[in-house]
């Protein structure tokens, strides 16, 4: 087991009615705020009014940048950073999902440098400081509200790149499950698939590590499997939305990772899909994950699938290991495609195999993915083919 540093410096206000603390938290961090939001859902569900009322109540000056697209574009980051510099803004307030929060994080970093923000992603340009970021989360999915990562898309180069850096960690996040009541059935399903994937990417690891972390991951996965159908049937079920929301934050905030160094596998493959076809992140993950599992299952990895099948899906431990392993893949497929109702194949969403060679090379960054099983471009290409 490797040693690790535990440090998750985001203050979380969880639950209904916590927004009354927003103004106080913002005024602690600065005086001039950039309010960042998406395509309009917060105006429809009333959250925009609640947030701006709170800002006005505290006498805070704010500017707005709306219209952040899902799979946020580098152009929005440039626009936000320019506004911050021009108006001398000192705090970024993101009200939305992962796309809004990721854009806000990179606006916060870009406001502190003189070079083009795409260089953060494409050239790993130094990212040593950022304006403070505060978030009001509106969808349970990416965990961006409690991690230091961000994913930005550049349509002119067909690239979607991810980078984690400590200055991007939100200082404060407001998580009110009621703010997710209006999330559509489809986006709820995609967000749920994303949460499951974040846990699976860490859980599927053959290096012996802290047993308690495996137990926590199994509990998180069981929580998601239990509450997702409740939310789909009853979108305003507070307990179910709350469980999904908090599980989503803990799936990726660094805690379950412990000292594991292993790279993720399905995420780099998915990011190439959404870079090229602009599909929803969680949908791509749902299609890829069971095929990646089938591809990586063999005598050397079967024990992990057995642990997954027995502890998460309660498959009888007395069955032959390979039988348990294959049944566990069948159960997770059933969860993605039947319980969540997501598309089973890339073909169903209009994606053919014309770009798989290119996507496989890009997913491996010209090398390989050092994940649960090492994947070379030819392996990734086969996994894409299995998805079509
Ligand atoms: O834009 P609006 O109008 O707000 O609508 C959004 C959007 O259409 C809607 N939505 C969000 N909250 C809602 C709502 N609709 C009604 N009521 C609400 N309360 O949902 C749609 C999707 O929003 P988006 O922010 O794109 O979803 P998500 O949170 O899944 O974010 C996806 C992005 O995050 C990246 C993904 O790659 C993708 O670009 N990721 C970020 C990560 C991170 N920062 O750590 C890790 C993830 O693995 C992921 O890669
Ligand atoms: Zn994800």
From TrEMBL:
Coiled coil: none
Residues annotated as domain Fe-containing alcohol dehydrogenase-like C-terminal: 188-385
Entries under Gene3D superfamilies matching the protein: 3.40.50.1970, Dehydroquinate synthase-like - alpha domain
Record keywords: Oxidoreductase
Entry annotated with the keyword Chaperone: no
Pfam families on file: ADH_Fe_C, Fe-ADH
Annotated Alcohol dehydrogenase iron-type/glycerol dehydrogenase GldA domain residues: 9-177
PANTHER family in alphabetical order: ALCOHOL DEHYDROGENASE YQHD
This protein's name: Iron-containing alcohol dehydrogenase
């Amino acid at each position: 087991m490797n040693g690790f540093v535990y440090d998750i410096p985001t203050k979380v206000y969880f639950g209904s009615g916590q927004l009354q603390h927003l103004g106080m938290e913002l005024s602690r961090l600065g005086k001039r705020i950039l309010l960042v939001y998406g395509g309009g859902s917060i105006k429809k569900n009333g959250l925009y009014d609640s947030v701006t009322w709170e800002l006005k109540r505290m006498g805070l000056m704010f500017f707005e940048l709306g219209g952040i697209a899902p799979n946020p574009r580098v152009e929005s980051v440039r626009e936000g950073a320019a506004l911050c510099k021009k108006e001398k803004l000192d705090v970024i307030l993101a009200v939305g999902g992962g796309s809004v929060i990721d854009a806000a994080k990179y606006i916060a970093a870009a406001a502190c440098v003189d070079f083009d923000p795409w260089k953060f992603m494409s050239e790993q340009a130094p990212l040593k400081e950022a304006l403070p970021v505060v978030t009001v989360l509106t969808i349970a999915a990416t965990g961006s509200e409690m991690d230091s990562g961000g994913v930005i898309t550049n349509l002119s180069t067909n690239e979607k790149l991810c980078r984690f850096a400590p200055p991007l960690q939100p200082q404060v996040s407001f998580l009110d499950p009621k703010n997710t009541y209006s999330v559509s059935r489809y986006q709820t399903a995609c967000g749920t698939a994303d949460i499951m994937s974040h846990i699976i990417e860490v859980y599927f690891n053959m290096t012996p590590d802290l047993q308690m972390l495996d137990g926590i991951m199994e509990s998180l996965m069981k929580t998601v499997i239990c509450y997702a159908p409740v939310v789909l049937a009853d979108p305003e079920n507070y307990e179910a939305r709350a469980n999904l929301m908090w599980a989503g934050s803990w799936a990726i905030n660094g805690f379950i990772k412990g000292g594991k160094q292993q790279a993720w596998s399905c995420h780099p493959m998915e990011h190439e899909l959404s870079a090229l076809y602009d599909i929803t992140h969680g949908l791509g993950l749902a299609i890829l994950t069971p095929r990646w599992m089938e591809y990586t299952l063999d005598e050397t990895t079967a024990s992990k699938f057995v642990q997954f099948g027995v502890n998460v899906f309660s498959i009888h431990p007395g069955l032959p290991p390979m039988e348990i392993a294959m049944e566990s893949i069948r159960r997770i497929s059933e969860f993605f495609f039947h319980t969540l109702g997501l598309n089973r194949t890339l073909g169903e969403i209009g994606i053919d195999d014309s770009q798989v060679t290119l996507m496989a090379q890009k997913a491996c960054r010209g090398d390989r993915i050092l994940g649960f099983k090492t994947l070379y471009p030819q392996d990734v290409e086969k996994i894409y083919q299995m998805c079509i």
